Amino acid sequence: MTELLTRLSILILVGGAASLLVWIGRRFVERQRQRALAAGPFNAIPGPDDTGTPAPASGPIRILAFSSADCSQCHQLQTPALRRVLKARGESVTVVDVDAVAEHALVQTYRVLTVPSTVVLDATGNARAINYGFANTQRLLEQVDAVMAKR
After folding, report:
1. Which helix (H) or strand (E) is 12 found in, with range?
2. Nearest CA to 115 among 74, 58, 55, 70?
3. Using an 8 Å Cβ cutoff, are 81 and 140 in contact?
4. Range 40-59 burial, b when 16+ CB lie within 10 A, else e
5. Nearest to 68 by CA among 39, 94, 97, 92
6. What pLDDT does residue 23 have?
7. Residue 17: what are its φ and ψ, rounded to 5°?
């Protein structure tokens, strides 16, 4: 009987520790999301020239799509989802591809924890929604529609 209680106690302890770690992780991600949403407006995307001159961004709502060259989920899942959002919302949405490896400042600003990540910006350049990890088409459309409704 004592062996059974010992095993049960260990199981409860391990389960409690796992639950605590999940709770801590979720709080951390939520704090990062809140800090990123509080970041100042994003009004320009890095320019393609060597001078680093910002290029003007177009479209009233922008989605920053953070990815990397070796991210298969970015290319196989997130890119098609973003294409569907563009098709569904037309010219009211612009997607800006951001190389998470090269654009360290943007990664820090929006506290990107993983790729793919997406940041939905309103017309003034303020972040309104942040998705760490893959965001499906429905979720992105809901976020874009919420930004459009606040105009």
Report:
1. helix 2-37
2. 74
3. yes
4. eebeebbeeeeeeeeeeeeb
5. 97
6. 96
7. -65, -40
Q: What is the pLDDT of residue 150?
A: 83
Contact, 141 vs 131, CB < 8 A?
no
* Listed residue (75, 97, 85) closest to 147, CA to CA: 85
Question: Which residue, 84, 99, 82, 96, is CA-closest to 127?
Answer: 96
| Model pLDDT for residues 36-78, shown as the tens digit of each residue | 888 888 765 544 444 343 444 545 899 999 999 999 999 999 9
pLDDT(28) > 70:
yes
Q: Whole-angstrom Cα distance, residue 106 to residue 126?
A: 13
Distance separating alpha carbons of residues 128 and 143, to the nearest angstrom: 8
Rounded Cα distance, 80 and 98, in Å: 16
Q: What is the pLDDT of residue 38?
A: 86
For the segment 70-127, what is each residue's pLDDT rounded down to a tens digit?
999 999 999 999 999 999 998 899 999 999 999 999 999 999 989 999 999 999 999 9
Phi, psi angles (nearest 5°) of residue 121:
-110, 140
